[in-house]
Amino acid sequence: MAENLPRIILVGRPNVGKSTLFNRLIRSNRAITHDRPGITRDRMDGVVRRKDMPVFGIVDTGGITLDAHAMVVEGPEGIRGFEQDILNQTEAALKDATAVAFVVDGRDGLLPLDEHLAAHVRRKGLPTLCVVNKVDGAEHEDERMAEFHALGFPLLAVSAEHGHNMNALVEDLTALLPEESSEEPPAPPTLRLAMLGRPNAGKSSLINALSGEDRMIVSDVAGTTRDSVDVRFTKNGKDYTFVDTAGVRRRTKITDNVEKYSVNSAIKSTTKADVTLLTLDAAEGVSQQDKRLMDMLNTRKTPFMILINKCDLAPRNALDQLRKNINELLSFCQHVPVLLVSALSGKDLHKILPLAQKIHEECSVRISTGKLNRAMEEVLTRHQPPVVKRSRAKFFYLTQAESQPPTFVFFVSDSERVPESYVRYLERALRKIFEISHAPMRLHLRSSHKKKTK
């Protein structure tokens, strides 16, 4: 979302349907929704686009529980222990807000938690619409809206789940926008980075440290982050978007439906990012799940690097052994860079973004056919293909089929006569000649019995 779009913040107590409403407004199932209260913790940004209407930002926030003195009180099980963090995240969002959509539950009626939070919102002085959710049709509107008039906000009854009155909601929210917000400004190019790793590896702490903002809730409790949350920031004149994801555990250990959705969202985020940052905990070492994630990223040819976080908390000899273990695991993808970092002390954090930028640039490389074939001649002269089944494969031609990642096709007399070890040699040679150090690379061998014309 462009940073200078006007933003409307969804605010409400837990389980009134803010995330379902958010998904309806942005027309995408980005926020995890569930009947259990307290699923959303971190705030999430989106954009609302409708034909012939102004474009605006929408921000989903966690459920807030306040008393009559605007102090946080204990919330439902899902947010217990995070109540103040969720309030802080919402307060940060409200500082840049244009307006507020105050969401209540029409089935539950007006509760004290709604009244206390409404008073807190009223003190912000922002244009506010009270959205009475879970009203499934016009026949229920009068009955379920009646007591909410006491809050003093304009009202609109909707059903986020069934889509009732959603067009009217967009119109009413648009009416809260300043008049000059009629066009969406062009989005600047941004490098998308996905954080991936096991629970409690420090992904959210790294994002906060790199962005210079307490954008993600950080806790020693594993599984604090649930949604895949976009965090946008600018560093040294360049725009970045971090996608923080839920911790990924082994599937056999996932018995909770919410965690299952979170893990699926985390894996999906890596396919939409330019570069993935696989984060490991130095104190925990490399688990079987870390190995699976490495193998998955390599198999999919996902551009990625490995961050060994919390390295300041591990003894030197343990770090050396960990680095050795990782290098052995990466024998099948030696191009993947490894950084020892610490979100807490700031160790080598300055290397992360430039390295990610380099990986992304390498993924976009295009090499002319002439250069490729001169390189192929050089590589073959230096080390000929081995003799297999009493004959040696002949290499005729080399071309680049695509980028993202760089993909090269060798036309050979018989691809079955080229062993895997020689394919690895070819990859290493091409990487060295064309300075593709860290991007994934695909090599394909295609059998052809005559030389292609250039």
From TrEMBL:
Keyword Nucleotide-binding carried by entry: yes
GO molecular function: GTP binding
Binding site for GTP 1: 12-19, 60-64, 133-136
Pfam families (alphabetical): KH_dom-like, MMR_HSR1
Ranges where the EngA-type G domain occurs: 6-181, 191-364
Domain of life: Bacteria
GO BP terms, alphabetized: ribosome biogenesis
Name of the protein this chain belongs to: GTPase Der
Gene from which this protein is expressed: der
